[in-house]
Each structure stands twice: as structure tokens, then as C-alpha cells.
Specification:
The protein is α/β, with parallel strands linked by helices. It has one domain: Rossmann fold (3-Layer(aba) Sandwich), CATH 3.40.50. It has helices spanning 13-21, 25-39, 57-65, 78-86, 90-93, 129-138, 156-167, 172-184, 188-198, and strands spanning 47-51, 70-75, 96-100, 115-119, 144-150, 203-206, 211-217. A seven-stranded mixed beta sheet has the order 3-2-1-4-5-7-6, with helices on both faces. Strand 1 (47-51), helix 3 and strand 2 (70-75) form a beta-alpha-beta unit. Helix 2 (25-39) packs across helix 3 and helix 7 packs antiparallel against helix 8. The model has no long low-confidence stretch (mean pLDDT 97). It binds S-adenosylmethionine (SAM).
Length: 219
């Protein structure tokens, strides 16, 4: 099945509210647990970068998991960032900064980061090199990269069954978004080709029927 693009930025207020109110406890904590296991440094005190942070649920979980860290979290959607900013308690505001900007042209406050991560953003990008080039722009030797995203199912029927299996109890707007995201996602082979084109040596692992986990250290 060919990839079918979905809108790149999540700008629609209803869509943004539904996404921000959805219960992502299990998948988002799973992402942070995998990231923490892979990084294996609970005392990490450097600065990390979250690419396409949306309403910030994963950014907040990262800040909690790494209490000595600083985090810059970027998104192109101001409605998403308004929700993230509203949830930013003063205690965290000294070390968690939300930034409006578009991959790959965003200009960030630091020239490089020690950890760069991203969840569920790659499939939004018409040109996937926007993610890989942003990583290259802000990584130096030793930067750790952790990316998770959806994988495109073999056909529409499999995508429809996944929507039933995993989002049947969610509002219609979330079910529709999940379906469109599945159709916009890449295959493992496509991601491997993108990484080769970007000259990034990262490991690509399928971790469920619908998720890919990409990790590595920049050399
Ligand atoms: C599905 S959400 C994921 C949000 C968050 N990472 C999470 O896991 O909850 C995808 C986000 O990527 C953002 N996005 C898409 N393309 C982008 C780009 N080129 N630059 C910056 N943000 C982008 C969208 O606005 C949206 O907030």
C-alpha cells in the first residue's frame, strides 16, 4: 500500500484538544521506559531535545524521569504549544522550555544536544528528511538518538482492524487521526533507506505490530 499523507502540523483546535485529552499513559510511559533503559543514566544532567513535542506529555515525562536534565521541546503548532505551556508548573519552567519552530529550519537556543528524541512525528512529515536533517544539524559525536513512530500496515483492511483493536473506546476524531496516521506512516525498509540517504547509522527495530523504535549514538 502506498503512503497517503496527512496534514503535517496539528493546528485544528478540536483535533488538538482531543489529542491533548487522550489517555496516552501506556504508550507514552512505554516510550519513556524504553528511552530510560536505553540511555541508562538516571543522573543525566545535560540538555535534551524533543522534536515535535505536541502538547508536551512526553516532554513532562522525560523531565520527571531525568530530574537533573534540561529539555528544549519544539513544535510547529502554536495551539499544541499553548496547551503544553499552560501545564508548565513554575518548578519545571527553569529546565523545560517549549519552542515554536518548524523542522528542519528551526533555530534552537543551543548548537547541539546530548540526547535528541521524538515520538510519533516522522509520519507527519511530507519529506522525512526534515527529521533526519534536524537531527544532523543539532547532533555532535556522542549525541544519543531515540525515535519512535508508527509503521504503515500492509493494506487498508489491516489499518481499519488496528483502529478497532486499539482505539475503539476513543472519540471519533482520535480514531480518524489514528487511521490517517497509519496510512501516512513509513515501512521499516523506507526508514532504513531514509537513514542511509542521511548517512545516519541508527538501529531500526520493529517493537510491535505498529511501532518502530530507532536508536543510536552519533559517531
Ligand atoms: C502526533 S503529534 C506527536 C506529539 C508528541 N510527540 C507525542 O508523542 O504526543 C505530532 C506533532 O508533530 C508536529 N509537527 C509535524 N510536523 C512538524 C514540523 N515540520 N515541525 C515541527 N513540528 C511538527 C505536529 O504539529 C504535532 O504536534
Amino acid at each position: 500500500m502506498k503512503r497517503i499523507l496527512e496534514p503535517e502540523l496539528m493546528l485544528d483546535e478540536r483535533q488538538v484538544r482531543a489529542y491533548a485529552e487522550a489517555d496516552f499513559e501506556i504508550p507514552h510511559q512505554d516510550f519513556i521506559n524504553r528511552l530510560s533503559t536505553w540511555v541508562n543514566e538516571p543522573g543525566f544532567s545535560g540538555t535534551a531535545l524533543d522534536l515535535g513535542c505536541g502538547p508536551g506529555d512526553i516532554s513532562f515525562r522525560f523531565a520527571k524521569a531525568f530530574p537533573l536534565s534540561k529539555l528544549h521541546a519544539v513544535d510547529g503548532s502554536q495551539p499544541m504549544l499553548n496547551i503544553a505551556q499552560a501545564a508548565l508548573i513554575p518548578d519545571l519552567a527553569t529546565r523545560l522550555h517549549f519552542i515554536q519552530g518548524l523542522l528542519p529550519t528551526v533555530i534552537l537556543p543551543q548548537s547541539d544536544y546530548e540526547i535528541i528524541f521524538s515520538n510519533s512525528v516522522l509520519h507527519h512529515l511530507p519529506d522525512p528528511q526534515a527529521l533526519w536533517q534536524t537531527i544532523k544539524n543539532y547532533a555532535i559525536p556522542g549525541t544519543r538518538i531515540i525515535i519512535m513512530d508508527l509503521l504503515r500496515p500492509a493494506n487498508l483492511a489491516v489499518a481499519q482492524k488496528m483502529v478497532q483493536d486499539y482505539t475503539a473506546n476513543e472519540p471519533d476524531i482520535l480514531q480518524r487521526d489514528f487511521y490517517h496516521s497509519l496510512l501516512a506512516a513509513f515501512s521499516i525498509e523506507e526508514i532504513s533507506t531514509q537513514l542511509a540517504q542521511a548517512d545516519l547509522q541508527l538501529q531500526v527495530e520493529q517493537i510491535s505490530d505498529r511501532h518502530v523504535f530507532i536508536t543510536g549514538v552519533i559517531r
